[in-house]
Amino acid sequence: MISETLLTEIEKHLHHCPLCGSILAKRESPDKFIASYECEASHHWYMNLINQTYNDILTGLDLQTNADDPMQIIKSWITIPELRAYLHPDTASCLRGLILKSDKLVQEYSSGSKSYKSCITCGALVTPEKPYDWDNPYICTNGHHQATRGFRYYRYIKEEGQEKGFHVEIQWERTPSDAYIYLCELSKPTTGGFFKEKIKPSIFVPQQIIKVLQKLKNI
Q1: d(CA 24, CA 22)
Q2: pTM score, whole prediction
Q3: Is residue 54 part of a domain?
Q4: Is residue 9 part of a domain?
Q5: What CA–CA distance (Å, rounded) separates 22 from 38?
Q6: Which of 38, 41, 190, 191 is in the most buried spot, having the most CB atoms within 10 Å?
């Protein structure tokens, strides 16, 4: 887990929504393995507070809770530390969306356009730089460099005199309305690429959750 000291230091550089530039505020979440944020335009973001390895994710695929009710299974995977620690971040985001939808904690929040406009630190306008590898870099008018990769938005911070820096990284939170759809996509068997065309069970979603997916469709 990220220490409270490091989280406090990170949040000194995390003030604005990348999509609209409005102020980010912390919000409560049933998931204690993330820090959750919402801007004035109802864009939701989260920061992972744990560092997981690929083997951690694989270990979690065969774990299960003793709960029988589909929604209780979902909530258990988010709230029981011994399960949540092995849950893929994208899967966890979908499960949080399903919980919010089921409990009617929010009506909906904005999906945004995924068009990044603002610096997460100062809120100034950003302009794209030349892409490299998997990243799309940006620089704001105040000279802050940052980048996106998929649904991740991050900035590397290294203060003068520091031996090493740290990343300020937030990820887009799945909306309640699209959580089920994306969870179904994550649950599909994994093929090709690294797996050399051999079909594998989903490497993102635990088998217990896959088994109750159809029962969650109408939540």
Answers
A1: 7
A2: 0.84
A3: yes
A4: yes
A5: 10
A6: 38
Find the domain containing 81 and state its range.
Answer: 4-112+172-216
How many whole angstroms separate alpha carbon 77 and alpha carbon 167? 27
Q: Is residue 68 classed as helix, strand or coil in its secondary structure?
A: coil
d(CA 176, CA 101): 5
Position 178 scores a pLDDT of: 84
**Residue closest to 125 by CA, chosen among 109, 110, 146:** 146
Q: At what angle do helices 176-186 and 89-103 cross, to 10 degrees?
A: 140
The reply to whether 202 falls in a domain is yes
Closest CA to 175 of 31, 4, 44: 44
- Residue 82, Cβ density class (10 Å: 0-12 exposed, 13-18 middle, ≥19 buried): exposed
Burial class of residue 88, CB neighbours in 10 A (0-12, 13-18, 19+): buried
Residue with tokens 């029962």, as numbered in its chain: 215
pLDDT digits (tens, 9 = 90+) for 111-121: 444 678 899 99
Query: What are the pLDDT digits (tens) for 20-47?
Result: 999 999 999 989 999 999 999 888 899 9
Q: What's the pLDDT at 179?
A: 87
Among 18, 57, 53, 56, CA closest to 39: 18
Look at residue 176 and tell me if it is in a domain: yes
pLDDT for 148-163, tens place per residue? Answer: 887 789 898 866 666 6
